[in-house]
Amino acid sequence: MRARPGEFELIAELFAPLTRGAPGALGLQDDAALIRPRAGQELVVTTDGLVEGVHFLAEDPPDSVARKALRVNLSDLAAKGAEPIGYFLTLMLPQDRSFAWIKGFARGLARDGERFEVPILGGDTTSTSGPLALSLTAVGTVPRGRMIHRSGARPGDLVFVSGTIGDAGAGLELAQAAKTGPADLIARYRVPEPRLGLGRALRGLASAGLDVSDGLIADLGHIAEVSGVSIVVEAKLLPLAPAVRRLWREEAAVRAAVCGDDYELAFTVPAARRARVIAAAKAVHTPITEIGRVEAGAGVRLLVQGRPEKLTKRGWRHF
Amino acid sequence: MRARPGEFELIAELFAPLTRGAPGALGLQDDAALIRPRAGQELVVTTDGLVEGVHFLAEDPPDSVARKALRVNLSDLAAKGAEPIGYFLTLMLPQDRSFAWIKGFARGLARDGERFEVPILGGDTTSTSGPLALSLTAVGTVPRGRMIHRSGARPGDLVFVSGTIGDAGAGLELAQAAKTGPADLIARYRVPEPRLGLGRALRGLASAGLDVSDGLIADLGHIAEVSGVSIVVEAKLLPLAPAVRRLWREEAAVRAAVCGDDYELAFTVPAARRARVIAAAKAVHTPITEIGRVEAGAGVRLLVQGRPEKLTKRGWRHF
Q1: What is the pLDDT of residues B204-258, one digit of tens each?
Q2: Which of B44, B54, B124 sits opposite A34 (nearest CB)?
Q3: Cβ within 8 Å, pair A317-B34
Q4: Are the Cβ atoms of B34 and A43 closer than 8 angstroms?
Q5: Considering CB atoms only, which of B31, B37, B124 is closest to A49?
Q6: What is the pLDDT of residue B165?
Q7: Which residue of A has its CA nearest to B223?
């Protein structure tokens, strides 16, 4: 077994190839990266930290850990309507973490770097006496003034969500219980799909948007709070995968609405743009479902058979 | 004693004020921050991770931990000739870390945010079962094409360093041994001074530059490697504080050259610009010292009484 190389060797061998030749990365050989925005572009920047045992499991394959770290950040860019241009990685490694693990991690970044055409631009590696931890900062661009904010929802707007929700929460439950279950669900937990095409398509259509990480209801609560509105969601309209319906049965809709880690986009749209937003989603081959409406007031209500459901767990807090 | 608030409360109470009203921070209430570069500006981005027990000591005051985290990143921007415009913070907190500690940490960020007029633009807080860890990403701007790279040193250039070196290494030695010693040295270890004014003044004058974190000789080695040159440093020319000379005596110059964590700027300058660079440093009230020269070849030599010193420890590796 090969001993683990030092910091500089790790960077040169495993991480420098991830720059994909991006000139601003300076081969990861400088103190900083250089970003040259084009005229009329604005930059959208997001950061997420992931800690083993909190955001992923010690037994998760290293390439899926890397891919999740990148994808949750790309998902934030997608929710803002941004196109990714690169990312920065701080990797905190336990001393006994094997070189094979780190290589697997880099392989995951390489795979998704290629898939999403996004280079690493810079980073830092350090040791830690604690669990493996990392922080990833992703940078994207939007045309001036076109970022989708959380603050633009208005009474009368419609509420949509992409894909299906609850899959990742069900997958986590199965993975934690070391239960066998539909591989799709566990894959959805491990490697979420950033909705980059949909995000771009929603520029100028969505009045507000975000990605579902804390849980659909909790996240819509963020839109409601920042926009100063109330949001009503109909449980029966929630898009659920058949496997989630089978696993959680009559509780499926309510559990899916709070379980989090979906990384689907939830967004509001003025009612007059309903047809346009449905056409735009279709054009990028991303299913979306109308699940509720924006009203005057505050907070989020999940209606089950017409009555607001009491939600005991308003969503994940990674804290 | 007040219980520690949750993630959202921490952000609203302690971190949102650190935005200093920067519009792009969106009150830390969105998924991402928005940066609007001015025409002709390029962005310089750098990331550093810090782990308790590796980069700072558990007994270090929380405000100085925060200030160091910010300053080591500002120092990277300084070395590139960039002006800071904001930063992103991922904070990984042990469950038992007190609210008082976190408040102290935020106070340190507030103090230096004011001092350097730099807002927080975004971030993430999460829990960890390990030591407190954080990653800070700083963003700065330079006029197009004016970033100072590591790669521009040419044979015949002069080598300079700012301030004095070895202070932080001596301070760390004192702090680790729990020895009393000159308070200045410990302060230099805990709270380095980013040389932002000097960095800006060096645009168009320095052919290459970086900040001294791994150790003067190791860092000049980075310039030598990336520039494809050799660098010769005269031990007797190294700028040392009287307290460092007293502590380390006849070994002072050699130890100072390898001990690291100085966060002074080391840079190369074409010989024809010697007078201009000395005047530019004077204008920003930052002492600089000419310590060597760039030659054809590879590697760094530290000359002691005319002979290359064998260096057993080529600098810190935080790894």
Answers
A1: 999 999 999 999 999 999 999 999 999 999 999 999 999 999 999 999 999 999 9
A2: B44
A3: no
A4: yes
A5: B124
A6: 96
A7: A30
d(CA B167, CA B170): 5
A/B interface, count of CB pairs below 8 Å: 222
Cβ neighbours for B183, distance < 8 A, ≥ 6 positions apart: none
A47 CB near a chain B CB, below 8 Å?
yes
**What would the mean pLDDT of A43-52 be, rounded to a whole number?**
96
Secondary structure class of B72 (helix, strand, coil):
helix
- pLDDT for residue B190 is more than 70: yes
Share of chain A above pLDDT 70, in %: 95
Tokens of A158: 């419609």
Decide: A87 and A73 in contact? Cβ < 8 Å.
yes
What DSSP letter does each residue of chain A carry, written as one string? -PPPP-HHHHIIIIIGGGGTT-GGGGGG-SSSEEE-PPTTEEEEEEEEEEEBTTTB-TTS-HHHHHHHHHHHHHHHHHHTTPEEEEEEEEEEEETT--HHHHHHHHHHHHHHHHHTT--EEEEEEEEESSS-EEEEEEEEEEETT-PPPSTT--TT-EEEEES-SSHHHHHHHHHHTT----HHHHHHHHS----HHHHHHHTTT-SEEEE-SS-HHHHHHHHHHHHT-EEEEEGGG----HHHHHHHGGGHHHHHHHH-----EEEEE-GGGHHHHHHHHHHTT--EEEEEEEESSSEEEEEETTEEPP-S-------
Distance CA B175, CA B178 (A): 5
pTM recorded for the entire structure: 0.93
| Cβ-defined contact of B90 to A48 (cutoff 8 Å) | yes
* B183-190 vs B167-176: helix crossing angle, rounded to 10: 100
- How far from B319 is each of A94, B49, B65, CA to CA, in Å? 10, 11, 19
- Asked if the Cβ–Cβ distance from A131 to B126 is below 8 Å, we say no
Q: With contacts defined as CB-CB under 8 Å, which chain B residues touch A7? A: 317-319
| Listed residue (A302, A297, A303, A298) closest to A314, CA to CA | A302
* Span B31-65, pLDDT tens digits: 999 999 999 999 999 999 999 999 888 888 999 99
Beta bridge partners of B269: B158
Domains of chain B: 7-21+39-143 (3.30.1330.10), 158-308 (3.90.650.10)
Interface test with B, best of A7, A47, A121 (most B CBs within 10 A): A47
In Å, how far is A190's CA from the nearest CA of chain B? 19
